[in-house]
Amino acid sequence: MVYFQVSRVGFNCGIDKKECNRYPDGCTECIKAQFVKFGFDVSQNIRINVIDSEEKRNQMFRDLIWQKFLDVLNIKHILLMTKDTGLPIVDYPISGAGVDVGFLTGFIQANITFSESGKASKGSTTQVLNHKFYEFQYETFNILLKNDNLIRLCLVLDRKASNSLKKLVSEFLNDYETRYQEKLQKLIKIGVLEFDDTIDFIIDTFNIKLVFPMVLTHTVLPNVLEKISKNHIQKAIVDFAKEILASRQVFFINNLLNKMQKIVNIDPSIILYEIYQLLISKVIIPTNIETASNEIKKFHELRAIRIANNELISPIIANDNAVNELKGKANTMSEEEARKLMETFIKKGETTERALAYKEAQKEYEKALFLATGFDFKLDIGRISFMVLELDKKVKNIELDYAVEAGEKAEKKKDYINAISNFKQALKIIEFYGNESKIKKMEKRIIGLQKHV
User: Fold this and answer.
1) Using an 8 Å Cβ cutoff, are 120 and 114 in contact?
2) In the predicted model, is pLDDT for residue 283 greater than 80?
3) Are residues 150 and 83 in contact, defined by beta-carbon separation less than 8 angstroms?
4) Quick one: pLDDT at residue 5?
5) Which of these, 118, 179, 113, lies nearest to 147 by C-alpha position?
6) How many CA atoms lie within 13 A of 62 on its CB side?
7) Distances (CA, A) of 378 to 276, 293, 349
8) Where are the domains of the chain?
9) 88: which strand partners?
10) For the packed helices 320-330 and 358-374, what is the interaxial angle rounded to 10 degrees?
11) Measuring CA to CA, how many Å separate 293 from each of 72, 224, 250, 299, 300?
């Protein structure tokens, strides 16, 4: 027999409080009696709260979802380990925080040992054991740690953990050990086992999907569509999401919240509640990081193919001589030889780019792009064109920073002609990428300086 505890169960008794002579003193006993009829065990560990208005009920749900969101935004990394040896079971990064798990596990083990022995490690920021939770600083992060019988959970956080997150950690450890007890015992005996199949349970428990990239469904059921059209907040959410997706492959809840708040003055917890309803009805769909990354890459590569086909990429490529030398050789190459040579150029380009030798990297990418276009390697044209565009952006940003800095120095010296000249150079670079707000700011700056000449 499996025994369950059900928390946050709502119950509508169906009777108006004005018509019930047992309200409010007899409500608890009445509800218990109803639950017993349904087969619930209510003899222990039960707490009943009266929420006697629709608005209070909605506010409770909004507060609950808002806290879930704040908690998951706070989590940067989840690390599950064996309790006795500290062997990693699941290593799940949620953001690009760049946590070194090897160093972290060693740091954890040392701090727990010192905490339990009542000593303090040299230079350690370990706090005292707090209600069976370990809390301490690691680099710029806050660590929340809790042990169960077999496992230990470590959360790497931005800020200190809320009480709701601590409660969730306790519930998770108990549930995880119960669900995967056989597997955990095998791990302790043999030392090697795959736990990736438990990640979905971790994602669901900690509501990680709230920070996943999101997309909109292509098909909405008529009854769902009708509900959205009657709810002005949900309709606005869908419209804003469509607006973001017009230029990107995915959107994030946090970005959507910020965008809506700038335009409409509504409590963010109300907006989030409506977003959550759209998630439940599968109008908004979370997608995993890997899928989103592939989709974004594909989107950029297709865009780069269009740019290459329109020959707008040609001004970026500067090294004509290298291509001219390659033209003669290419005439006698097979497709296989061309592909191998193209990959060689790409690798050399990537190596020199990492070494910050951008001009040399450009030459290598140019040669690779010449072979890709000459032999009509369609997918490679997009891939390499995108690399060229991204590299050019880096070069242009360096040139832009230099031009702005030189202009500002000249302006301070009241050398207005040189200041204008440098700012005009900066303006050309900004215009190349079509950033309207930056163009206007730079034009305004130049006009202001021209008054001094």
Assistant:
1) yes
2) yes
3) yes
4) 65
5) 113
6) 15
7) 41, 20, 20
8) 1-52, 68-210, 212-287, 288-453
9) 81
10) 30
11) 21, 29, 9, 10, 11
